[in-house]
Amino acid sequence: MNTNQNTANSTQSEMVGKSRVVILGAGESGVGAAKLAQLKGFDVFVSDFGVITDKYKKALESLSIPFESEKHTDDLILNATEVIKSPGIPANAPIIKKIVEKGISVISEIEFAKRYTNAKTICITGSNGKTTTSLLTYHILKNAGVNVGLAGNIGKSFAAQVATESFEWYVLEISSFMLDEMFQFKADIAVLLNITPDHLDRYEYKLEKYAASKMRIIQNQNADDVFIYCADDDETLKALKNIKPLAKSFPFSIEKKIDQGAYLEHDTIHILIESNNELTMTITDLALQGKHNIYNSMASGIVAKVLELRNPTIRESMSDFKNVEHRLEHVAKISGIDFINDSKATNVNSTWYALESMTTDVVLIMGGVDKGNDYSMLKDLVKSKVKAIVCLGKDNKRIHDAFEDDVEIIVNTFSAEEATQIAFHLAKRGNTVLLSPACASFDLFNSYEDRGDQFKAAVREL
């Protein structure tokens, strides 16, 4: 154990009679949950099968919370009253199977933290756009003077903030993995942006199972709550045929007029919520450009109108917002070639959105850990916009198979530096080099952030 075993044992003996909470995973959410659990008087133990970073190790040590690193010890875990699981640990992991067999409750950090706050929650999920929409929503609310925190799949842990802050509202970015371990939790405002194939390796490669996970965003809602969804998303509409929301529902669309919600007419967004005065805004005034970002802006705008924020404040915030790093981030223009970092595009649909927003010929850098991707949806865009594909990953066979008839050049590379240099040589003045991988990053990189940072560093070395 990468801590003092005696500390763990003595702490256990001192805590006899207290409910024992075991936390699996010592990242941001796990350490935040440990902090809150300790504050609430639980006997806390943290176990991580991987290496705990120095930052989080020091945080646990400063709180005198016992932990272990690079292993799971059954005797220290299977005596738990409840287990809080990191979203990254799959349900079929050996330790999870043992916990379930023992009849021990397994929940998410979000579920745990919500027990200890009266703050209202705006919960945003979707296969694509949830980070951008969460940040934009938070930006609008904060600018309007709302006492609001930002947590979930982004920023500081929800549990840590519940332990140390006193926000009245939280904007929570919620992944399907989090939703799978949320049971009593209720969103006051639930936002579902879209459902497209992603993480299917965690859902038996069945889209309907993944969709069912996303629909958990509306579980436990009642008539006083709000549900915001995309009326143009086929999988969402399919799921809504079987699940009838109890909450007040506000759809958004760029294809048809909506009575209560948001829609696009010509180049103007209209947002109308019940008797509130209508908000209109031209899409050229939006800080976020591209079709996918019209959807994201509509969703955030509906939230703002539900909260009865002033139209001028909403317009100002939607026009001066700066997007998240690694999402269609302009890095540099070199020799007339634009370099765009979209490393956060870890699924095919995200890459589709990125290509759809391009207005020049593209040299596309893509590849990584394939999560059961169906590349067919990219074929038309690749044919019309992509002049070459630079693969960045250990196994690129499926990308070659998918696009060998659509582009003349497909090159394999195994580092961000090599991919960037080759893409630069393949591009011409007026072209765009776009890193939009459509895959997870863990074959060559620590994270999508690491991949994006290495790409940006390589661009600056050109």
From TrEMBL:
Annotated GO CC locations: cytoplasm
Keyword terms of this UniProt record: ATP-binding, Cell cycle, Cell division, Cell shape, Cell wall biogenesis/degradation, Cytoplasm, Ligase, Nucleotide-binding, Peptidoglycan synthesis
One Pfam family this sequence matches: MurD-like_N
EC numbers for this chain: 6.3.2.9
Keyword Cell wall biogenesis/degradation included in the entry's annotation: yes
InterPro entries named among the record's database cross-references: Mur-like_cat_sf, Mur_ligase_C, Mur_ligase_C_dom_sf, Mur_ligase_cen, MurD
UniProt binding sites for ATP: 126-132
Chief place of localization: cytoplasm
Gene Ontology biological-process entries: cell division; cell wall organization; peptidoglycan biosynthetic process; regulation of cell shape
Family recorded in the similarity comment: Belongs to the MurCDEF family.
Function description: Cell wall formation. Catalyzes the addition of glutamate to the nucleotide precursor UDP-N-acetylmuramoyl-L-alanine (UMA).
Descriptive protein name: UDP-N-acetylmuramoylalanine--D-glutamate ligase
Species whose genome carries this gene: Pedobacter changchengzhani
Name of the encoding gene: murD
